[in-house]
């Protein structure tokens, strides 16, 4: 099954996550099919907290990809902010 989930990056105590489309059998930070955005939970000031390529996410969802719980919440918040 294809999932859209977060892949951790950044340094110790400063997490940074990429939104990746990947096979659910792969490890969290392993191979992925495509990066479709990022999430920076410790963004301050003018730093961008979330960037999502909504067009690509919609494509993958139409192909049957399932978002993780956290990604689904980010997508919902992004849609609410855009409206």
Kindly describe this structure.
The protein contains 2 helices and 5 strands; from the N terminus they run ββββαβα. The chain is α+β, with helices and mostly antiparallel strands and 83 residues long. Strands 4-3-2-1-5 form a 5-stranded mixed beta sheet. A hairpin with a 2-residue loop joins strand 1 and strand 2. The protein is flat.
Summarize the structure.
This protein has 83 residues and is an alpha+beta fold. It is 28% helix and 37% strand.
Spatially, the strands of the biggest sheet line up as 4-3-2-1-5
Indicate the structural class. alpha+beta
Q: How many helices in DSSP terms?
A: 2
Poorly predicted parts:
none
- Give the helix proportion (percent range): 25-40%
Helix-strand string: EEEEHEH
Mean pLDDT: 93
Give the termini distance in whole angstroms: 31 Å
Largest sheet: 5 strands, mixed
Strand content: 35-45%
Write the layout of secondary structure elements.
Layout: E1 2-11, E2 14-23, E3 34-39, E4 50-52, H1 54-62, E5 66-67, H2 69-82
Parallel strand pairs: 1-5
Antiparallel strand pairs: 1-2, 2-3, 3-4
For this entry, give a set of tags.
alpha+beta, flat, 83 residues, 5 strands, 28% helix, 2 helices
């Amino acid at each position: 099954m294809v999932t859209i989930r977060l892949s951790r990056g950044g340094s110790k105590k400063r997490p940074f996550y990429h939104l990746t489309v990947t096979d659910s059998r792969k490890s969290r930070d392993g191979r992925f099919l495509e990066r479709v955005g990022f999430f920076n939970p410790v963004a301050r000031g003018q730093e961008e907290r979330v960037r999502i390529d909504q067009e690509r996410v919609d494509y993958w969802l139409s192909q049957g990809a399932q978002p993780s719980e956290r990604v689904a919440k980010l997508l919902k918040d992004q849609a609410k902010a855009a409206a």
